[in-house]
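Revision sheet: C-alpha cells.
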Amino acid sequence: MGGRAKYRARCDTMIARLAGFKIAWHSCCALIAGEGGPRHTLAHLTLGKFELIAVSDGIYHLDGGAFFGVVPKVLWERKVKADEHNRVPAGLNSVIVNTGDHTVLIETGIGNKLPERMANIYGMPAQLLDNLAAAKIAPEDIDIVINSHLHFDHCGWNTIRRGGKIVATFPKARYYVQQGEWRHAHSQERDAISYLSENYDPLVESGQMTLLRGDQEIVPGISVEVFSGHTRDMQAIIVRSGGHTACYISDLIPSSLHLDLNWVMAFDLYPLETIESRKRYYARALPEKWLTMFTHDPSLPWGHVERAEMGKLEVKAS
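Predicted:
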C-alpha cells in the first residue's frame, strides 16, 4: 500500500470511529426532533463527587471554510458534509456542574435575542432553557454562570428581554468572564460583529458579572485558565473532583474534528497562539487523562483525547 493509500485508510478509520462515537451520543438523547426541534439530552457523567450534565442550545450553522480555516475542503468534507450554502452544523453545548454546594452553568449558547439578519445567517434554535427544564433545572437554581468568552454564540442566554428591559436570565447567579475579554468586546476589532453588548453590559452595570484578571478559582473544584488564540483572553473552565479532571476548552478545540494542532478556525484572531495553546493543553490533558468538553461538536459533548497510531489524536467517547 502506497503512502497516499495508507493515509486515506487511516482517515477512513478515524471517520468510522467518530461516527461510532456520535451514534453512542445520540443514544443518550431522550428526544431528537430534528435540528429545529427539541433536543432534550440526558447525558450525565460523574466526575469524582461532581455531576456533569450536557445541555444544548441546539444546532446552528457556520461556513465550512471558516470553521476549518486553512484546511482544504477536500479534507474536512470527508468528516462533515456541507450544505448547498457551504455551511456545516455546529453544536451549542453548555454544561451543568453540580458540586453539591453550587449549580454551575458553563456557557449559555446563542439565546433568543439575535438581530434578524444574524438569525437568518446562523439560525437561532434557542433550546437551552427547554433542555435545562428537561433536566429539572430552573433558571433560579443556577448560582454561577461562567462564560469562556463573549462571542454571541457563547453568552446569548446570559440575559433576556422582559418588560422592555434586558435582565439576567439566571437571577440568582454570579456571572464570570475575563476583564480583558470584556474590554476587547468594546474595542471594535475585526471580530466586532461577534459581540452583542446586551448579552453582558447590563450584567456588568448591575454588578452581577465579575470581571476576572487572569487564572482564578471560582469555587472549590472549579477554576478558569486563560488560553489565548481564539481571542486573547478566552478562558477554559477546569473542573476537578476526586482525582479526576474535566475541561471545557471552548473554541480552542471547538469540536472533536479539530484535534489536530493545525486544524484551526478562520475565526481565531491569533492562530499561531491557538497552536501553542493546544500544545500546552495536550501536554497536561493527555497524560492526566482529562475529559475534554467540546463547545461546538453537534454530536459529541465530551470525550477523552488520546494518541493513536502514528501519533494521531482521536477521541474516546465517555
